Amino acid sequence: MDTNYLVAFGANLPSQFGSPRTTLCAAIERLEQLGFSLVAASRFWSTPAVPEGSGPDFVNACCKMRSSLQPRDALAQLHGVEEEFGRVREGRWSARVVDIDLIASEDRVLPERESFLRWKNLPPEAQRRDAPTELILPHPRLQDRAFVLIPLAEIAPLWRHPITGDSVMDMLAALPEVEKNPISPL
């Protein structure tokens, strides 16, 4: 049985495929070659690198995709495409040729509610140094990231977070304008 996945894409360095935008198009195409079905895709968005001045602006987008893979296997495919495209994991929040994040798998919470809440509530200083070794769904930083919520609102505005019950539009509305204003469509 196929599962719906919400997937976020980002890049701010050129790759073997060309510009970040071209790279994201190629990554989506590669996932389709691997058996993911593209259901919907957002526009591409320009997003300043964080922290400010740490690199070129990112190109971000979100897709709704279907796959017969289970979430952990789907994540392994996403990571495989990142590696194939030249992604080197060199610390958190660094410049990259491609970043593909599994944001949600329908209303699943993985590995379970308590672990999800521990990662969601992790203090910012711990977020800089700690990364989960297991799949956490929905993505524990989803509600904090305008660069994910803005494109996600184009393709899944009514999707509801299975823990908080907030829709994508609710989460986006809760973000400060100062975080949303620098993000613009390409």
TrEMBL record:
<dbReference type="GO" id="GO:0003848">
    <property type="term" value="F:2-amino-4-hydroxy-6-hydroxymethyldihydropteridine diphosphokinase activity"/>
</dbReference>
<protein>
    <recommendedName>
        <fullName>2-amino-4-hydroxy-6-hydroxymethyldihydropteridine pyrophosphokinase</fullName>
        <ecNumber>2.7.6.3</ecNumber>
    </recommendedName>
</protein>
<keyword id="KW-0547">Nucleotide-binding</keyword>
<keyword id="KW-0067">ATP-binding</keyword>
<keyword id="KW-0808">Transferase</keyword>
<dbReference type="Pfam" id="PF01288">
    <property type="entry name" value="HPPK"/>
</dbReference>
<comment type="similarity">
    <text>Belongs to the HPPK family.</text>
</comment>
<comment type="function">
    <text>Catalyzes the transfer of pyrophosphate from adenosine triphosphate (ATP) to 6-hydroxymethyl-7,8-dihydropterin, an enzymatic step in folate biosynthesis pathway.</text>
</comment>
<comment type="pathway">
    <text>Cofactor biosynthesis; tetrahydrofolate biosynthesis; 2-amino-4-hydroxy-6-hydroxymethyl-7,8-dihydropteridine diphosphate from 7,8-dihydroneopterin triphosphate: step 4/4.</text>
</comment>
<feature type="domain" description="7,8-dihydro-6-hydroxymethylpterin-pyrophosphokinase">
    <location>
        <begin position="7"/>
        <end position="157"/>
    </location>
</feature>
<keyword id="KW-0289">Folate biosynthesis</keyword>
<dbReference type="InterPro" id="IPR035907">
    <property type="entry name" value="Hppk_sf"/>
</dbReference>
<dbReference type="InterPro" id="IPR000550">
    <property type="entry name" value="Hppk"/>
</dbReference>
<keyword id="KW-0418">Kinase</keyword>
